[in-house]
Write a structure and sequence with these properties.
Chain A: This is Acyl carrier protein. The complex is a heterodimer. By secondary structure, chain A is mainly alpha-helical. Chain A has four helices and no strands. In chain B, helix 8 links the parallel strand 8 and strand 9. Classes of the chains: A mainly alpha, B alpha/beta. Bound molecules: zinc ion.
Chain lengths: 79, 359
């Protein structure tokens, strides 16, 4: 799996939505499935999969799929 | 939307803070006055002005109003979360309407304040709560919201209790063993930590490996009053439970989630830059300026944008201990909470087990 495929898979799992719905423009708190509870699940899974530990600022700022990719890139995850 | 600098949470001394907050509060009061008809009606009926010359003149609402009225200042379509806090004696529930901006501001503020005490690193975290607390995702009790907000501070979250409030020994032993001797975060409501955790662990006769814990607890002491448990006894119990424990009480309310008041190393509750407290007389609600004198606590928070909760008269009594002079070095007012005003129902930020279980 490429990092991008992993990302889509993790979003889809944590938010319990179809992988097709995981698009760059998808934003936090705009669908019921991506609420604060799902967000913490997502964070835990991203951290486990990519073996990183995110900063709290980054957790709060991870407000879209595009933003998630941008933040992960700062942790040397290449997309 | 108010711009808030979260870089130095306790940096502003009196004059600078007053000037910053006054500008923010006039802006907020004007915003809510323009965007919340009910709020405008209240202000107009009381003959108050939305723009004022000092913080003490900023209009305040009683917590009761959030139970009686739907106070919201943005279109309902923008509300993403509604926080509720129920009382013990009345069926009335306070409803706090959050839009995405306010929710984010609250999350950020909470984290930045708590990090002043727990450090930047996200530590392993144990909640004195059942793991099903946050399972209901549509509506949130104050307790659920508390757990949600604090969860951001930590990692590898464990929950110490079962849904029936008995100890989840499997989770507990796992956490204590995994992080033996290490720095961890413990979060819970004062009453629950005592009743469901401390007493149950003591009664079990089991001993747990020692941790190096930072304990955050809040929600008030009232429910422990009948056991005559105070701060000293509570803090001693935490040392006993965790081996090493730095204990920080916090004071906050569901109407002003995010801008909480945390106890420093010297046992004083501190107002961060984005919040303040004013004391008012129990007789006529006039401002009490003298430090050390008891009064009703009014809380101010620059965070509420989607609902007019920026200035609130609580049902708590307290006294201001000083301003800018605490030996911990934090600027701003510091104070202590002395209990509830008489006649007020037993409503805390921590609705208890009985209350949530009947939700
Ligand atoms: Zn202090």
């Amino acid at each position: 799996m490429t990092n991008n495929e992993k990302l889509v898979h993790l979003f889809s799992e944590a938010l319990t939505i179809a992988p097709e719905l995981v698009v760059d423009s998808l934003q936090y708190n705009t669908i019921p499935q991506w609420d604060s509870t799902a967000h913490m699940v997502l964070i835990a899974q991203l951290e486990a999969e990519f073996e990183i530990m995110l900063d709290t600022d980054d957790i709060i700022d991870m407000s879209s799929v595009a933003k998630a990719r941008e933040i992960l890139a700062r942790y040397d995850i290449e997309f | 939307m108010i711009e808030i600098d979260f870089d130095a949470i306790y940096s502003q001394s009196k004059e600078q803070k007053n000037a910053t907050l006054l500008a923010q509060f006039n802006q907020l009061t004007e915003f809510h006055y323009q965007h919340c008809q009910l709020y405008k009606n209240i202000i107009d009926t009381l003959g108050l002005a939305p723009t004022n010359g000092c913080l003490e003149l900023v209009p305040f609402l009683s917590t009761q109003l959030f139970k009686e009225l739907e106070l919201v200042s943005v279109p309902k379509s923008q509300i993403i979360k509604t926080l509720t806090s129920s009382g013990t004696t009345s069926a009335k529930v306070a409803k706090i309407y959050l839009d995405a901006d306010t929710a984010k501001l609250q999350a950020k503020s909470l984290v930045k304040i708590m990090q002043c005490f727990s450090g930047k690193q996200r530590l392993p975290m144990l909640f004195m709560e059942p793991s099903n607390l946050i399972a209901d995702r549509r509506g949130f009790s104050a307790r659920g919201a508390g757990v949600q907000g604090f969860a951001l501070l930590g990692r590898d979250h464990h929950y110490a209790l079962n849904p029936d409030m008995s100890i989840n020994w499997q989770q507990l032993e796992q956490f204590f063993t995994k992080y033996q001797g290490q720095k961890v975060l413990i979060f819970g409501f004062t009453f629950m930590i005592w009743q469901y955790f401390y007493q149950a662990v003591s009664a079990s006769g089991k001993t747990l490996p020692p941790l190096d814990a930072i304990v955050f607890h809040g929600g008030g002491w009232k429910k422990l009053a009948h056991l005559a448990v105070g701060k000293t006894q509570f803090n001693q119990a935490m040392q006993q439970l965790f081996g090493k424990a730095k204990v920080h009480n916090f004071y906050g309310m569901v109407e002003q989630t995010g801008s909480i008041f945390v106890e420093c190393e010297h046992g004083h509750l501190h107002a961060p830059n984005c919040a303040d407290i004013i004391l008012r007389s129990e007789q006529d609600l006039s401002v009490i300026n003298d430090f050390g004198q008891q009064g009703i606590i009014q809380v101010l928070s620059a965070l509420p944008h989607s609902y007019p909760g920026h200035s609130i008269l609580t049902e708590d009594l307290g006294r201001i201990l000083g301003e800018d002079t605490c030996s911990c070095g934090r600027k701003g007012r510091y104070f202590e909470v002395l209990g509830r005003i008489k006649k007020s129902e037993n409503r805390g930020c921590s609705d208890t087990y009985q209350e949530v279980s009947h939700d």
